[in-house]
Design brief:
The chain is an alpha/beta fold and 947 residues long. Strands 7-6-8-9-10-14-15 form a 7-stranded mixed beta sheet, with helices on both faces. Helix 3 (71-84) packs parallel to helix 4 and helix 24 packs parallel to helix 25 (887-896). It is elongated.
Length: 947
């Protein structure tokens, strides 16, 4: 006797090697919302089969891979499962795109895939078993149901990939054939949550129903936004073909309750197999989990493969495929069977309504399993969707008629020819026999005659038969050709109606032949054109509405801009008025302190004066940048001497230069000549550059170089450019260059310097002050005059700012300078001051009185006019911004009165509108704040001996 093994496992028998199976689904990415549960159902079936003894006595070992919602990943993982893991079968994929991505791997490597999701059909691969629905088991009955409910105008919404687009091609052909209407068609990128525009399109065209082929996370966003519009399911039902219980849970039952779905299985199906399946699934994965159609299809797919393997006695793909034909299984949804011809499954069709508890209530079913028809062969209107199918209709009829005609013709010709030859032979024989020398008896001759008559009779019969066949062929040909002509006539009539603009016309599809395909294609094309035209009309309305909205927005923006300008003008006036008083009084107090010998107060008063001017400059800069942005800044062009401009700038900045112990050097040819530009804006830009150099340089050197350039056009290298187009400076040009030996800047600081409210950095602002608007405004001024400001700087070594302007500035915003009129004042001149600001009047009165003028004042325009009539003053000083009657109205009234028209009027205001004032007749136009002492001296210069 042999020794027994002491190992209990060996005693029970050898351990059998497991059968590896692949599970390939998206466990991450946008499709994981649906595919994780399908993977779980597959593994539940594997566990149940292993618990029951496995397959062929061997356990199943699942090799799980993540397709990651990416087509390339799916293809790569499929190859790994087949070649590296060497699995016997793969259960997986969801989207048609992923199925088609892995299909080559299964075909080239003789693999086997069980695909568990409904799809668009028009496909049959010997390496794939389709346990989900074919189009005639979901899409087609779903549309039929909507049409039966009176929902004729249907909007198609889907994700942008294979299944929705192909499925919607089927739906459009179906609508065209059954009298439905395509309301619109929109596709969103897979996983996109940007559904606002699609919902706007839907609301615009007002469909009766929506057929939804969205997949993944897009459904969550769509149903949430659709509910927010206030539309109820009874008003606009959505029938979804890719939303089941699992997706309902993620979308939120309250967002989708009342809408429709079409599947082959619901969790609420009442069968013993389903109750057992739901109980096992919840026990394995949690009571909060739900089952749905793809989950059930994945589950039953494992059992169908198990039965096929056990029937074949092998996991060999060829044998399993052969054994799987007509296999049946009692699935949770009811009896299913693998179709022997298509490798699809027979399934019961169910339509349901989503409930608030997340479950789906069945409201219609097909009553019995529906045979899969992936190519829709039983639907004439779908003939054009499968162009690869052979059609023998029209072609076979015409070819058959031609063959029959040829055969009959040859038969008649042959019979006649053979009969004529035989009769010829017999007649020759009779002729020879009739010769007495031949010695032929009369009986023999009679026999020859009878034979000849028999040949004639036989030939006649053949010809009669040919005639009968010709008649039959003629009748058949007439019927066939008549049918073809009739169908072509109907097709032509439909085409003519469509050509005339009637896109509702439809050609009847009466057969699957070429004419039927043409009719179906024409109907679909007309439907799509109609849908496109409807979409264009909707877009047109949307564009008109959007244009109206933009017009309203534009008007609102213009009103806001006007309000802003008005606010800025009023605000700056309110701020400038007290600042003008502060500056004026501080100057007067300095003068009086010096006269009284109180020199200790002079520096304090000077500080007050400087602070007031700095604040006033900031306010002016803010107003200037606002006017620039609004496009309201105007150039006042005039011809002036460049040397005189430089002398004015030097005189103004000399105190600032000396404050930090700096040295100012000016290099300017005294014969440099003139420039035609805006004097005040160029002066402001130069003052800004030189004052910045003085501020950022300590005990250094500041150089102003001015020269004229001749030659070609000089391209400007701008940074922080304000205009879309790069400006250029036309030659000849004047170059103003300001160089300092100050702190300098880095490249990063230079790149940001010309931005509004920008300085080199925050530390610079804290140390040196300033708003950062000066360079922005200066540069814009130069660009308005056809030039620019450029900068070269080296950190801790200094900076060079260069202004280049054409010698003759040309500008579309040019406003010709209006020259002021000369004043001629008597020695004891009377001056009338009209200003609503009491401080301004007081300052003007005190300053002018010191110069020997007799001064009277008025606080308003109306009072000023009355006082002017009474006094007949020698000059009038007039403010612009006053309540009730402003300065412009007062000036116009003065010039309109013959008694007052010749009195010179000096406008003094914060507004930069010199030309307007001079055109109205002002003798001078001066900007606040004034140096009242200099102003008084100016008036004194115009005094003469007599009026």
């Amino acid at each position: 006797m042999g020794a027994r093994s002491s190992n209990p496992l060996e005693a029970a028998g050898p351990i059998r090697e497991p059968i590896k199976i692949g599970v390939l689904h998206s466990l991450t990415g946008t499709m994981s919302i649906s595919e994780i549960s399908v993977k779980d159902a597959t593994l539940l079936a594997v566990e149940e089969i292993n618990a029951a003894g496995g397959v062929l006595g061997r356990p199943l070992e699942a090799v799980i891979e993540d397709g990651a919602s990416d087509l390339q990943t799916f293809a790569q993982k499929a190859k790994q499962l087949l070649l590296e893991a060497q699995v016997a079968v793969v259960f997986g994929c969801w989207t048609s795109a992923s199925r088609k991505a892995v299909q080559p791997a299964f075909e080239h490597n003789s693999g086997l895939l069980f695909y568990p999701v409904q799809y668009e059909g028009l496909e049959q691969c010997r390496n794939i078993f389709y346990t989900g629905a074919a189009p005639n088991q979901q899409i087609v009955p779903g549309v039929n149901y909507l049409l039966a409910q009176g929902k004729r105008k249907i909007f198609l919404l889907g994700s942008d990939y294979i299944f929705p687009r192909t499925a919607n091609q089927i739906v459009k052909a179906q609508l065209a054939a059954l009298g439905g209407e395509l309301a619109g068609e929109v596709y969103l990128p897979l996983g996109s949550k940007e559904v606002g525009e699609a919902i706007a399109d839907i609301l615009a065209v007002k469909p009766d129903a929506i057929l939804n082929t969205l997949n993944g996370d897009s459904n969550v966003a769509f149903f949430l936004h659709l509910r927010e519009t206030g539309l109820k399911p009874e008003d606009l039902p959505v029938m979804s073909v890719s939303v089941a219980e699992e997706e309902v849970r993620t979308i939120g039952p309250s967002n989708i309750a009342g809408h429709l779905v079409v599947w082959n299985y619901f969790q609420t199906v009442d069968t013993p197999e389903n109750r057992k399946f739901v109980k096992a699934y919840k026990a394995r994965y949690g009571q909060d989990r739900v089952t749905d159609d793809p989950i059930e299809a994945a589950y039953l797919g494992v059992y169908l493969w198990k039965q096929a393997v056990e029937k074949a006695g092998s996991t060999d793909v060829v044998k399993v495929r052969a054994a799987a034909k007509n296999i049946e299984f009692a699935a949770p949804s009811g009896k299913v069977k693998i179709d022997a011809q298509t490798q699809h499954t027979w399934k019961t069709v169910r339509i349901g309504k989503v409930r608030l508890d997340g479950q789906i209530e069945e409201i219609w079913n097909s009553g019995a399993p529906v045979r899969p028809d992936p190519f829709l062969k039983s639907y004439p209107w779908a003939a054009a969707l499968a162009p690869r199918r052979m059609s023998l209709g029209t072609g076979a009829s015409l070819i058959g008629l031609f063959v029959i005609s040829v055969v009959i013709t040859w038969m008649a010709v042959g019979a006649g020819w053979m009969g004529s030859v035989e009769m010829k032979n017999y007649l020759l024989t009779i002729d020879a026999a009739s010769d007495p020398a031949a010695g032929v008896s009369e009986a023999a001759i009679a026999m020859l005659v009878q034979q000849t008559l028999a040949v004639v009779s036989r030939t006649q019969h053949w010809l009669l038969g040919a005639l009968v066949l010709s008649a039959i062929a003629g009748i058949v040909g007439f019927v066939s050709v008549s049918a073809i002509i009739r169908n072509l006539g109907l097709l032509r009539e439909t085409a003519e109606l469509m050509a005339s603009g009637d896109l509702t016309a439809r050609s009847p599809v009466v057969s699957n032949d070429a004419i039927g395909v043409l009719s179906s294609t024409l109907n679909t094309m007309a439907q799509q054109i109609s849908s496109l035209l409807s979409g264009l009309e909707v877009r047109q309305r949307q564009l008109e509405e959007r244009s109206a909205e933009l017009e309203v927005t534009k008007n609102a923006a213009e009103a806001a801009n006007r309000a802003k300008s008005s606010f800025l003008a009023n605000m700056t006036h309110e701020l400038r008025t007290p600042l003008n008083a502060i500056i004026g009084y501080s100057e007067l107090l300095q003068e009086e302190a010096l006269e009284l010998g109180e020199e200790e107060f002079v520096m304090d008063l000077a500080s007050i004066n400087i602070a007031g001017k700095q604040l006033l400059n900031i306010i002016s800069d803010i107003l200037d940048i606002s006017k620039i942005e609004a496009g309201k800044m105007t150039l006042f062009l005039e011809t002036f001497e460049v040397l005189n401009l430089i002398e004015q700038v030097v005189a103004t900045v000399q105190p600032m230069v000396g404050k930090n112990g700096n040295t100012l050097i000016v290099n300017c040819d005294r014969n440099i000549g003139t420039i035609y530009a805006d004097l005040s804006k160029l002066r402001q830009a130069l003052l800004n550059l030189v004052s910045n150099a003085a501020k950022f340089t300590d005990r250094g050197k500041i150089t102003i170089n001015v020269w004229k350039e001749q030659g070609e056009v000089w391209p400007l290298d701008n940074s922080e450019d304000f205009s879309a187009a790069r400006s250029q400076c036309q030659m000849p040009s004047i170059v103003f260059q300001v160089t300092d030996t100050g702190i300098g800047m880095t490249e990063d600081q230079v790149s940001r310097l010309f931005g509004a409210f920008a300085q080199a950095d925050d530390s610079t602002t804290r140390r040196y002050g300033g708003t950062g608007l000066g360079l922005t405004i200066s540069r814009k001024f130069c660009q308005m005059m056809g030039g620019d400001i450029t900068l070269e700087s080296k950190f801790d070594c200094g900076s060079t700012f260069t202004i280049r302007l054409p010698v003759v500035v040309e500008s579309q915003k040019e406003e010709k300078e209006v020259r002021s009129k000369g004043l001629d004042l008597p020695a004891d001149a009377t001056v009338l001051v009209i200003d609503d600001d009491p401080d301004a009047r007081d300052l003007m009165t005190r300053c002018l009185s010191k110069q020997g003028f007799r001064v009277r004042s008025s606080a308003c325009g109306e009072g000023g006019l009355l006082l002017a009539k009474q006094l007949q003053p020698d000059a009038i000083i007039l403010d612009v911004m006053m309540p009730s009657m402003d300065g412009w109205a007062v000036l116009s009234a003065l010039k309109a009165d013959p008694d007052l028209a010749d009195i010179p009027v000096i406008m003094i205001t914060f507004l930069d509108d010199k030309n307007h004032g001079l055109k109205l007749g002002a003798a001078e136009y001066l900007r606040k704040p004034l140096d009242y002492k200099r102003f008084a001296a100016l008036l004194s210069k115009y005094q003469s001996l007599g009026k």
